[in-house]
Specification:
The chain is of the alpha/beta class and 464 residues long. It contains 13 helices and 13 strands. The strands form two sheets. Strands 1, 2, 3, 4, 5, 6, 7, 8 and 9 form a nine-stranded mixed sheet that branches. A four-stranded antiparallel sheet has the order 10-11-12-13, with helices on one face. β12 and β13 form a beta hairpin.
Length: 464
Amino acid sequence: MKPTSRAPAVAAMMLLASLSCHGERAAAPPTGLVIVTLDTTRADHLSVYGYMDVRLPHLERLAASGVVFDQAMSVGALTLPAHTSLFTGLLPPAHGVRDNGGPGLDASHVTLAEVLRARGFRTAAFVGSAVLDAERGLAQGFDHYAGVRPDSGDAQGFQRRGDEVIDEAVEWLDGVGSAPFFLWAHLYDPHRPYDPPPPFDARHDPYVGEIAFADQQIGRLLQALDARALTERAIVIVVGDHGEARGDHGERDHGVFLYQSVLRVPLIVSAPGIPAHRIADVVGLTDIMPTVLDLLGVSAPPSDGATLADALRGRARLEEFEAYAESLYPRHLGWSPLFALRSGRYKLIDAPRPELYDLESDPFEERNIYQQRRGVAAAMHDRLIRIRAATDAGSVPREFAASPELRRRLGALGYASGDHGGSVPAGGRLPDPKDCIGASRLSSVPSRAASSRAPCDGRGAGGA
């Protein structure tokens, strides 16, 4: 079930009929696809989105020739669930990947790579983090899947820099020739620990330096496409999986909260025949798969997203869209999970102490207006429940216990990986993460850091 419908089908059919009557022929669809995913990258820390402290010439080049989405939303703040939604078009309750340390993608689900390989595309993936190891499910449909080769027990053994990822991706492009192809490159550099190489370490703060380094790698990939005459026949997409809190609302990094600092992600699409412009409407990661397949002229499997192809071509505006997000990660810490719904200007966060924000007047989510706008909040809460029920209906619960090796890898990258999906005590409620964040190592206030598991009684003074 789609959380929304924004396809102006009648208008599209009339347009096609009109073109046919005038003897015009539609351009042949592209035969190549390149998706670069930027891990842990806040949209508002890119020059394309108005950030003034860094120049990102290669993303700026892509934006100047393509479409920039100003309000692209992730489904959560963890790498594996977000990438799974991107490559299946399904929300987390539907595809069943709810956590980096929970079950991976089941083989019963269809991925973008599987669809394209069945249509004769050569497919390859080059990823920068062990969170996306092949056995976690996203290797489905890729002829070649190059992940991290861990050689130690520390974080450096479970991630790799973007230059190594792009080196391999460029080498693979040498064999593409005239064949249709799909290349995915995952750049993990903006993820903690921030350690940009020279000269980026001296020019910027470490987090921004990692983004600037990732931009350089994107430039290398774009140059490789140009040199092999692949640019003119390929769709190129750069998209974030989630952002980084950087202290916003008391969270040091990401994984717990569902504020815009972690949910709003960059999304830039460049494709043959697509005019350069910006789109201010809300879109989601689940829209990318149906959009790509539409642009490629390939039938899409059912999904929770919708094609944005007509909007990309400038033929139609998007209808108002709802964006769902969730965070089950707090359960690892003994805290309540969180769920969110973005609908136009409003955003609801379903928590023990619920929150409602007007993002037009309060983009930093500093004023909780839940009590003042109870009617809006109630309607959005009902809609959130319906979306969760509809998407949960198609999923099959799976027993899963993270292996010691998976726990070791996630721990090296800073993630808790306890038993997935803890239950609410009988007659009680798990505490609100807002009341607990300051007592954990996830806090942005180092002097208050404690253990990785920080129980709390829910009576803290924290708030939205």
